[in-house]
Amino acid sequence: MNCDKMDELLSALVDDELDAREARVVERHLQGCRECRQKAKVLAAMKGAAKRAGRVEAPADLKEALLAQARRRAPAPAPRTAFALPGYRAGFAAAFAAAVAMVAVLASRGPEETIPVDFMLAAHNGYALTQPLAPVDALTPALAERLAADGEAR
Amino acid sequence: MIEKFIEDYSDRAFQFAYSLCGSVEEAKELVQEAFFRVIRKWDQYDRSQPLESWFLTILRNVYYDSLKRYERKNGVPLDETVELAGGERVELTDNLADANETPILDRLVREEADAEVRAAIATLSPEHRAIIDLADIQGLGYDRIAEVLDCPAGTVRSRLWRARSALREALVARGAEAAR
């Protein structure tokens, strides 16, 4: 490879950015080319000098200015919890009021409207009659009579 | 969170901003604007990418946006000439002036080399200053630089070579000037 084609590769060499194949090509070339060896030294020296000389100190007040402006122009706060939002709060209040009203209505119903215990028992046994694991023989004759009576009453 | 971000990145951001614009005050403004873009766009950040590259890319965009605004307002490209520390404005083409090449390697290791190198870097185009800053001063690899500059890694290699050639020319020109 001639020297003109080496320039970019020498620049990449000082950055350690050559792949293995390129590194072998460059190494072979440098062994036989004094001029390119000198170029590579200059590039490495320039890189070191730029690193030393090019660093600039950030002004002392920069961080403070950034923090102050970040506080002033901070993004909108994260969404609050659902119950903290006005719309949800109103909805929750309405649902709670409805539940209280329903309890009050149920509590105000008279004893005549309550479900008779006997009827509940009969219904339970009626359900049991339909199940294969609850054979009809297992029911006492008295209960069977009451079930029949309840059935007629309904 | 934001305090840590500022703590970790403000110095590097300022370094890169300064390499782009060459002015302390302007660099401060660029960094501030870039930080607020970061805050605004935080939900767009792809966490699989390095935060540093994303942030420096935003900073670079802020710089080019400001450049476009300046050009629209004034009708002249901002980077045609650069202002040196002493207030002197220099045409970029000055860097290409033919000069008697002095042994550059010897000059780079002298004590006063830092000031000379700083002055030479200041005469480079913003594009060249930026890539030298990212590669040599901040020590980023080509892949990261490619992300920041939004170009292929191969372009980073060639652009870096051109920037170093320009820096070398600038150093040679300054050496010849000093010898006169």
What can you see in these coordinates?
The complex is a heterodimer of chains A (154) and B (180). By secondary structure, chain A is mainly α. Chain A is 66% helix and 0% strand. Chain A has helices spanning 7-14, 20-32, 34-54, 62-72, 86-107, 117-129, 141-153. In chain A, helix 6 (117-129) packs across helix 7. The longest helix of chain A is centred in the middle third of the chain and has 22 residues, at 86-107. Chain A is elongated. The termini of chain A are far apart. The relative contact order of chain A is 0.05. Mean pLDDT of chain A is 71; it is low at 76-86, 110-114 and 127-136. By secondary structure, chain B is mainly α. Chain B is 68% helix and 3% strand. Chain B has helices at residues 2-21, 24-40, 51-74, 104-108, 113-122, 126-137, 142-149, 153-179; strands at residues 81-83, 89-91. Chain B has a two-stranded antiparallel ribbon with strand order 1-2. Mean pLDDT of chain B is 80; it is low at 78-85 and 88-102. Chains A and B meet through helix 1, helix 3 and helix 4 of A and helix 1, helix 2, helix 4, helix 5 and helix 6 of B.
SSE arrangement:
The complex is a heterodimer of chains A (154) and B (180).
Chain A: H1 7-14, H2 20-32, H3 34-54, H4 62-72, H5 86-107, H6 117-129, H7 141-153
Chain B: H1 2-21, H2 24-40, H3 51-74, E1 81-83, E2 89-91, H4 104-108, H5 113-122, H6 126-137, H7 142-149, H8 153-179
Antiparallel strand pairs in B: 1-2
